[in-house]
Amino acid sequence: MTKIRLPLALLSLFALTACSAPPGTWGWYVIDPSTPAGWTNITFLLRGFSATIQISVLAAVASIIIGLLVALPAFARSRWLRLPNRIYVEFIRAIPLLPMLFWVFYGLPVVLRSIGLDVNIDPFWGAVITLAVSDSAFTAEIFRSGIQAVPRGQAEAAQTIGLTRAQAMRYVILPQAVRRILPPLANQFIYIVKMSAFASVIGMAELTRRANELVVTEYRPLEIYTLLILEYLVLVLIISAGVRWLERKMNADESR
Amino acid sequence: MANINQGKHAVTMAQVSKWYDDFQVLRDITLTVDHGEKLVICGPSGSGKSTVVRLLAGLETHQEGTIKLYGQPVDAQGRGDVGMVFQQFNLFPHLSVLDNLILGPMRALGMPRQEARDRAMAYLERVRIPEQAGKRPGQLSGGQQQRVAIARSLCMDPKLMLFDEPTSALDPEMIAEVLDVMEDLARDGMTMICVTHEMGFARRVADRIAFMDAGEMVEVDPPEIAFSAPKSARFAQFLDKILKH
Ligand SMILES: Nc1ncnc2c1ncn2[C@@H]1O[C@H](COP(=O)(O)OP(=O)(O)OP(=O)(O)O)[C@@H](O)[C@H]1O
Ligand SMILES: [Mg+2]
Questions:
Q1: Signal sequence span per UniProt (chain A) (predicted)?
Q2: pLDDT for B113-149, tens place per residue?
Q3: For residues A122 and A194, is the Cβ–Cβ distance under 8 A?
Q4: How far is it, in rounded angstroms, from Cα B230 to Cα B209?
């Protein structure tokens, strides 16, 4: 599937833009690696991968950890322990990403300074924190529904062989929930990669920021943004392929 | 309630009532089970049989009355002291048969892995499937899975074993292999409470047969009486119906 999808997507993108364009519309020289100027430009753009990938991976890992911590109290017996879970999920889910990014980058340092913490939040960590927190509400819900989908008899059997609720969660429920959780979690990772483009507005030199900067100097938005879209496409396709590989591996493990 | 003597009986239920919202599932259940006794519970669907054993297993709570196991409340029992075998087996599908068996002893009892494995293998011998130790539950037949489930409970060295329709989800040819294992267990002196409609098993194994209907414990008789001269018309009718099949 992956093997035909990438060329197909590239092709249709080119077809769509190229066919309808009168001569002279395209100016690929701007990123033509065979010319010195084009080479400089394209390496400038591609270096954005590093920041985009680092931000996305760190945010995804943090989101999974926060999400799990937020999800587990949802299974507490006490209503008071379940309440913070609901509040966190509903509240965080309601905040659009961009305002949250501004708040974290410009507002949070002020809050921290007011309580005596002289911490500067740079664009990189501002983006990681925002993406992680924003995404964690969704991750928490994915964990919750994945855990809830494990049949009740599993927890009951665990209880009758003397496991505590925490042990049942760790050894019986979570391992079974993982296979239900993984596909939606991968979708969230793709979402994070795409949303990391917002980091450009607080000055993080990731893929989108670099494209913007080059457009400003070269006046070639069509070529540069086309390349930008392809850059994200490649990232996302690699992630999907990785997830499918993992799923196959887990299925093979299960029927072993 | 005065007759609850410390540990004199394995199970003592006194005037136990339970509701789901305003639907009463159990009405004034009073029942004692002696050490080593085998009690079979039968009755029509929805009569509350599962609810009774689930209460004893600590999987449900009740609103009125007292339940004591060995003179102590249900939630004061040792870890794994009350074994439970479910209609749907409820084996852990992500673990091998052996890992299903050693999980409780290792995590709940803190037993070293090697000792837990030795014990697990001994019980797999007893339920006659030691050769399946490395397989996943999904690769076994229903009868084999249920025997693994029994072995898994036995690995916790329980004082009391509860069975909730252990053969109802099985194809006819597999019922016998599970009942055989249960009869072995009964012969070894295990205290057993078994919800089942296998009347042949009841006749061979049960010390007493309890009949439930609409949340009530209608009567509890030795099998000779139950099968020849049940006291209530409801029990007679019920036996008539299931013995015909
Ligand atoms: N969680 C629940 N919420 C509401 N009602 C319930 C619940 N569990 C059981 N009941 C009801 O309680 C009654 C007794 O249920 P129980 O499972 O104990 O019956 P049973 O005798 O085991 O029946 P069966 O032979 O079908 O297994 C039934 O009417 C059932 O619908
Ligand atoms: Mg039942």
A1: 1-20
A2: 999 999 999 999 999 999 999 999 999 999 999 999 9
A3: no
A4: 10
Residue spans of the domains in chain B: they are: 2-243
Q: What is the DSSP letter of A22?
A: P
Residue B178 has which token pair? 């599970």
Q: In what order do the strands lie in the sheet with B64-69?
A: B23-33, B11-20, B64-69
Whether residue A249 is contained in a domain is answered as no
Cβ separation B93–A256 shorter than 8 A? no
Give bridge partners of residue B208 from the DSSP assignment. Answer: B39
Q: In ligand 1, which atom is closest to the CA atom of B165?
A: 27
How far apart CA A51 and CA A233 sit, in angstroms, is 16
CB of B98 closer than 8 Å to CB of B59: no
Model ipTM? Answer: 0.93
The first and second tokens of residue B197, run together, are: 């409609």
The answer to whether position A116 is within a domain reads yes
Which DSSP category does A156 fall into? H
CATH code where residue A166 lies? 1.10.3720.10
- pLDDT for the residue numbered A19: 56
> Kind and range of the H or E element at A221?
helix A221-254
* DSSP 8-state symbol, B72: B
Is A172 a domain residue? yes
> Interior CA angle at A18 toward A12 and A21, to 5°?
140
pLDDT recorded at residue A22: 64
| Arch. (CATH architecture) of B2-243 | 3-Layer(aba) Sandwich (3.40)
Could you identify the residue written with the tokens 């997507």? A9
For residue B186, count CB atoms less than 10 angstroms from its CB and return exposed for 0-12, middle for 13-18, buried for 19 or more.
buried
Would you say residue A91 lies in a domain? yes
**Span A185-218, pLDDT tens digits:** 988 999 999 999 999 999 999 999 999 999 999 8
Residues in a beta bridge with B16: B29
Instruction: Name the minimum distance, in Å, from the CA of B182 to any CA of chain A.
Output: 18
Which pair of structure tokens corresponds to residue A144? 């919750």
Domain of A143 in residue numbering reads as 54-204
> Which tokens is B209 given?
């047969």
| Cβ of B153 below 6 Å from ligand 1 | no
**B104 reaches A (C-beta below 8 A):** yes
Residue A99 makes CB contacts below 8 A (sequence gap 6+) with none
Contacts of A216 (CB under 8 A, 6+ apart): none
Amino acid at B117: R
For residue B221, report the phi and psi dihedrals to the nearest 5 degrees. Answer: -130, 155
The domain total for chain A is: 1
Q: Under an 8 A CB cutoff, do B108 and A162 touch?
A: yes
